[in-house]
Right-handed parallel beta-helix repeat-containing protein (Myxococcus landrumensis), 1451 residues
Amino acid sequence: MFKSGFLGILLALVPTVALATNVPGGVLASDTTWTAAGNPWTIQGTLTIPVGVTLTLEPGVSVTTPDDTALNLEVLGSLVAVGTADDSINILLHGNSIRVRGTVVADHVFVVGGQPSFRVEGSGSATFNHSTLRSGAPSLDISGGSLNFENGFVGNCKQVMKTTGGTSTLRSSLIHDCTPTGTTPLIKISGSSPKVTLVHNSFFDNGGSAIDGFMNGGPTDVSITLYDNIIVGKGSYGLRLTNVLAPVVHHNVVWGFTDANYVGVSPGEGSVTANPLILGYGSLTENSPARNVASDGTDMGAVPYSGLPAHPVLLEGILRSNRTLTGDNVVTGDLLVPAGITLTLAPGASVMVKSWKDGPGESSVSLKVLIAGSLKAEGTVEAPVRFDHEYDYDVTTLQGQASFKHARVKGALTFWGSATFEEVTLEPSFSIVIKGTGSATFKGITGTGSGSIQLKDDSTATVENVTLSRASLYAEGNSTLTVKDATLTKGGVSVSDSATATVTDSHLTEGYPCLRVLGGSLTFERGTLEKCSSAVEATGGVVNVSYSLLRDNERSSPALVGGLHLANVSASIAHNTIINNKWGALYIATQPQNTVEIRDNIIKSNEYTGIEVVPASNISIHHNAVWGHSSNYKGNPTLGPGSLTQDPLFVSPRHLTLLETSPCRNSASDGTDMGAFPYVPVPGASIVLGGYSLTTSGNTKNSVSARVYDAEGLELPHAVVTWSATPEVGTIDADGVLTTGCTLGSYPGAMVARSGNASASVDVTVQLGSVQTVVVTPSQVTLRIEETQQFSAKGVDFCGYEVPTTFQWATGHTAAGRISASGLYTASSNVYSDAKGIQVTAGGKTGSASLNILPGPLHHLSLWPETVTMALNSSMDFFATPRDRAGNTLPGSVAWSVVGGGGTIDALGHFVAGSVAGSFPKTVQASFGGLTVAADVIVTPGWLHRVEVMSASNEVRTRGSIQFTAQGFDEWGNKRVGSPTWTVMNPALGTIDSNGLLKVGTVAGFFPGAVMARMTDGFGTEVTGLADVTVRPGPLSRLVLMPTLVTLEPQATQQFGVMGFDVDGNAVTLSPTWSVVTAGAGAITPEGLYTAPRVAGTYSNSVRVGAEHLTLTTTVFVKPAAVRRVEISPEAPAVVVKGTVPFQVKAFDAYDNEVTSASAAWSVVKGGGSISAAGVFTAGTVAGTFADSVQVTVEGVTKATGVTVTPGAVSRIAISPQGPTVAAGSTVAFSAKAFDAYGNEVTSAPATWKVVNGGGSIDGAGVFTAGIVVGAFPGTVQVTVGGVVEQASVSVVAAAPSRVVLSPQNPTIPAGGSVTFSAQAFDMYGNEAPAYPATWKVVNGGGTVNASGVFSAGTVAGTFLNTVQVTVGSATGTTSVSVTSTTPNPEPECRQSSDCGGGETCNAGVCEAPPTSGGKEGGGGCSSSGTGTSVFGLLVLVMLAFDSRKRRAAR
């Protein structure tokens, strides 16, 4: 009988229209559904859902609990809360909990609070999908039963989950922003029987440690499975397992924890220890190392990659697309550039590669950069790139292609692919290693500090035009090194193993040694080895040195000479110059397999020995010049032909070219010169002169001696010296005799001696000679009487240069005047002329000046006549005479001019009157010596010749007037006085009065000669003048437009015109302005050419013309043109089978104007139905698209359109596959096809899928996901399309084994004994799976096991943990075995099964209970992934064993 309180619960649960529903607590009596209409549902006390009762929460339901009351929602029956993505179910728990001992199914549920949020106990079952748990403490507490949490979110919690029993699965979920207190982990696993599976989850932005599995009391077989997770944190550890014997851990990213990422467990196969590079809510960025590396080949974590670009800050991970770097960049973690991907450094960019990345705790882990694709580090001269490494550790490996250009490179690089270096600076401590079949090219490289380029394996490298300091080149393995034009300072080339090195045209200095050969082959040609610790140190392999210089090298052990130390090598030493090396030039000690040839060398002045050998028949020495040693040869070598012991005669000790007379010339084995430097003429390096300065005068001869020396200061007595001199200093002959010129001064380097490229110069100074000529200045002078003139004189040498001296002055005659001792001359009062009138003497030489004395200055000028009256164009002569103060006529011409008009005058004073009448005072002027006199001239006019009629303007409007005047003129334009008589010659013009005022009539036009003036002079001559008059029309009064109306087709043209008239009808000249005033009505040019618009219609008053203040408009009619195109509507319609569509047609001209006057003809040409003459289409029964089937023709223009005939209503459904078999947890994709009554497939109707008979779930796309219960589910998959339903059956079978249980567990058997093991396999859902084929093996000793699981103990006693292992598929189970000593042999508990009781069997002398079978709860037994032996099972085993012993004792 119900309690009275429960009635209140029922009443409270009845749906009402209230805005809130209070649930007082208690026990639900029957299935109940809460809807959103009752929101919020407030549980006010503990509410129990009893067994057999279901509480259903519909989408949008909101449930809350009070924050001041402790209560639980007890689920003993079922709680079904299935929301939707758009309408979730919200539960606010505060500090309360949902306790699950029945069944909870939650989808799209949002839960906030809870202490814990959900507690699963006993045999309870909780399944969550697409759900969120926030602020739980913890969110999940599992002590029994099962939990399946998928595609969800747990956040803002104090703990995600703690479990002490049952089965817990978290899959594809986000764990975010949870902050446990103290040492509490996010997930705590403890107890003896929990089974925990974490797959494809993402832990990030949480506090504390992540997962802690701590089992008290020693090793346990607790089942813990973790794979495909991303676990990122900042607490102490990521995964810590204690006393867990066989966890399944693989394919996880665990990263960022302070003490350790893993404790008590190894990461397992496929795990990644690197920053997963996630952003936002667990989203993988493009470069994430967690992409495509999960155990199933997908992305690790809960959120698959969805296109998020590369991490904006961190340059690490895996580049998935080409990337170009700019600015400064730092590689902070492992970086992979896969094949096919290019990493580019833009000009000016830099990359710093860190050597270490953060490891667990305070540790650091070596960082790795692998470039399997391409690296393009190419800058410019102005903006080079940098590729740096923090330290010198081997961090970066390049397997693809790399190019460095205008770059600075620092640190270690390892190449397995190909690389080019061009114009690159290798910074100190660089290390470049080329391995495998890698190759590299170095051009224009500079090395600024210590470093190395190493070739290994079968690699190749070309080094060309490089300059390295403190850096060496190494060829090892089977590599090939080619060096050209290299300069190596304090470095060298080393060859070993089977490597090959060729060095040409290179200079090596101060190396230690410069060349080292331990094996392989080294060829050195046309180079220099200088100041090395040893030039060549070879202890194996092959050495070829030719045409090279080895000098000034030191000796360093183990080498015995500073030149070439050849021990146990084959060598060819040919055409070298070896000089001034410490100890000796060559040391040779061979083995029988070696061959050494020394030929065509010059070996001179080495410290002690030229060539030292350990005597052997495989040493060939011939055609060498060895000279200048304490011992030229040591060890009694056998000398072949052509061996010389003479001074080779170099040009100088440092210039090692042979002299022409050298005994080494043409003495080599090949007929050429010995040594590295054959004879060539040696140019002078310097010239020493007998003097370097010369002082002389002009036209003298001087010579200077010259001697030529080479670069070392040795004289070249036969050198040819060529002399030259600057033109300013003079000329010089081939013997160096200089003849000075006449240019005085100092000339540095004026004489130059040259020999080859050497030169020397002499400074020359040219100075004055003696007086040869006396020069008087001025040399000629003309003075007036009694004037003075200062003369000067100078004495000059042959070159005309003035020479300081004293002078004596004199005149040529007393009549000439007098001159002082200083050369001041005073003229006499007489006129005088003398070519040598002035004389001066100096240094025995005399000079003179010409003298001419003239009259005094002008005093006055006389003129005649002073006044004259003349007729036009008449003439007369004027006269003027200049005189000095004494009355003497001065020579010279008088200048005549006319300054005031009236006529012209020539140079002799002949004046001609002009044609202009008038009075011209002081117009005739005579000028001389600055004096001017003038005469007056009067010119009288001529007879009347013409009359000129004038007015302000000869243009006038009609009805206007003009004032005319008249003026008479003689033949030359001089005015004549008179009164005119006026006459109008054309009456149409108007009338004129006696004063010349013309009044114009109404006729416009041009009236030539229309106004006449008549005048007479005093002589009776009558002369007339005429004037033209232009009468302009009056103001514009009206306009006339032509044509007035026009009809055109689109874009046709029409020339418009306009005329203007005044009020009297006179035409007025216009400047019209044309325009189209209606928008879209066409266009018109400034000249009135109109173009019709494209659109047909009537454009009223659209064309306008304006002139001055008047305007006119006209209307244009635009009619459509011929039909050009046709439109059908609707276009490509869809119509159901047997349906109809009325079509319409419109015709248009070329300008899109609709043509309405034409008729249309309809037809169906490609099937699909029929059409009437009115254009009504009737569809057939076959669905499909009939392209261009409906056709219409209008005035010869045809248009077609398609018709899509759509299927009718759904009549039947075909579903596929039918009756599939699916593994638990796996998926199968169903498809459905719908057909109408005519057999046409209906594709437009949506399909609705659902599961109606259990077995799993299905999504909207028809993808069926099998559940965890195996069995046959007939007709469970149902699809509905267009109201028609179809079903399919499904069989669910066990999934692949995920764990294996061995029986017996942990047996104890005597040494040499045996036990038969059996195995049971279970999938991840606890369904028993076939346990075959099974693979048995012993992994930790103790004995052997055969393919049938029979274990045979060995002879060594002890406990062998987890030694017996069986593998079924990918699942593995283990058990331990204890082997007891055979001495003494204990009494067996049984010898046969009949000795035991209670269904026990005798196994190896021990009575054993039968093995318990596994089930959904895991069963008994212990395995690497099972739940372990339960306490109850252990108790039963102990009791059975005790009972057996009692019975055996009784027997």
Q: What stands out?
A: The mean pLDDT is 88. Residues 1431-1450 form the longest helix (20 residues). The longest strand covers residues 1005-1016. The two ends are 59 Å apart (CA to CA).
